[in-house]
Amino acid sequence: MICIVDRTVQPSPEIQQSVAAVEQIVGYDFRNKRLLEEALTHSSYSESPSYQRLEFIGDAALSLALSNYFFLAYPGVDPGTLSLLRSANVSTEKLARVAVRHGLYRHLRHNAPALRDKVREFTEAVTREDETPLVYRGSVRAPKVLADMVESVAAAMYVDLNFDLEKLWMKFRRLLEPIVTLEEVKSQPQPVTVLFELCQKHGKHVDIKHWRDETKSIASVYVDGVFVASGSSEQKEIAKLDAAKIALFKLSKSLGVSGRSMEFIAGNDALRKMKVLHMRRDLYRWSKFQLRMVCYAWWEMKGRE
Fold first, then answer.
1. Does 3 map to a domain?
2. What per-residue confidence (pLDDT) applies to 2?
3. pLDDT, tens digit, for every residue of 170-206?
4. Domain co-membership, 246 together with 107
5. DSSP-assigned beta bridge partners for residue 229
6. Together in a domain, 80 and 214
7. Within a domain: residue 6?
8. Measured in Å, how far apart are the chain's first and last C-alpha atoms?
9. CA separation for the pair 235, 167 (Å, rounded)
């Protein structure tokens, strides 16, 4: 294969420090440093090519590298579980935490104040969490831009290594650690899987329907044709997870799911938010009841006059 990189290709002067810092983080000296400059550039920064093309190839490269790894690490595991393992390790949640843990987010070049606020909120939330590996979602939604950035940096390295997947894995694996293991996936059940399994056990049919409005993906859960819950997010996967969590909470008694199991599946924070929503709904219903009683008393009083 013809090598397409050249050690003489240097980054733009204004991003040289960030390029050098990221090279230190990933432990790799790029031959074509413009690749890394591109990987650190968001589409809102119009003065330079963005990471969108690199993110495309990085997503595929990391997925394949992890597929190879799990295929060899778990020879007796079925394809469905291997897919769950791979998804847990390349999810937006997981990769965004990689960007925070290694400080990559500090070197993202963009012109989007709203994006800066989202990244700051997520970063602060992550620093307050404990060290328990999180498979599905934490208390604050992970900004997709952080996961895209990690995939783009991986892609830049992959291209710079002349598309050698084995070398990419050997050099990039350290950043992805700790790798989410089979035991961790089993200890944090996937809410959608749990919902389907529990409903099937009770002879109920589950259907999750998706659609998209102008800005968000919306997922709605129907059980035996009856609407149960919905979730929305910029990402289809998170909308589906949120809808499944809420559905499990609503159906917990009829499906025989204990409160402790709900904490395991949905997480303490998600469970607290669901309870708050139900408290608000009950308060709203009680307020309407009180209003009706006041109106009824007023009409009775007027009738006696």
1. no
2. 42
3. 999 999 999 989 888 777 777 887 888 888 888 899 9
4. no
5. 221
6. no
7. no
8. 98
9. 31
Pair of tokens at residue 284 = 């709203």
3-state secondary structure of 106: helix
In a domain, 173, yes or no: yes
Minimal CA–CA distance to 173: which of 40, 24, 27? Answer: 27
Domain range for 288 is 268-305
Q: Can you spell out the DSSP letters for 160-229? A: HTTS-HHHHHHHHHHHHPSPPPHHHHHHS--HHHHHHHHHHHTT--EEEEEEE-SS-EEEEEEETTEEEE
User: What does the pLDDT look like over 21-36, one tens digit per residue?
Assistant: 999 999 999 999 999 9
Structural domain tally of the chain? 3
Q: What CATH number did the domain enclosing 150 receive?
A: 1.10.1520.10
Residues 106, 28, single domain; the answer is yes
**Could you tell me which of 10, 269, 300, 36 has the C-alpha nearest to residue 150?**
36
* Cβ atoms of 266 and 274 closer than 8 Å: yes
Helix, coil or strand: residue 286: helix
Which residue type is seen at 74?
Y
Question: What are the helix (H) ranges across the chain?
Answer: 16-26, 33-39, 52-73, 79-90, 92-101, 113-128, 144-160, 165-176, 182-187, 191-201, 236-255, 259-266, 268-304
Cα–Cα distance list, 233 to 78, 211, 240, 246 (Å): 30, 11, 9, 14
pLDDT at residue 102 in the model: 95
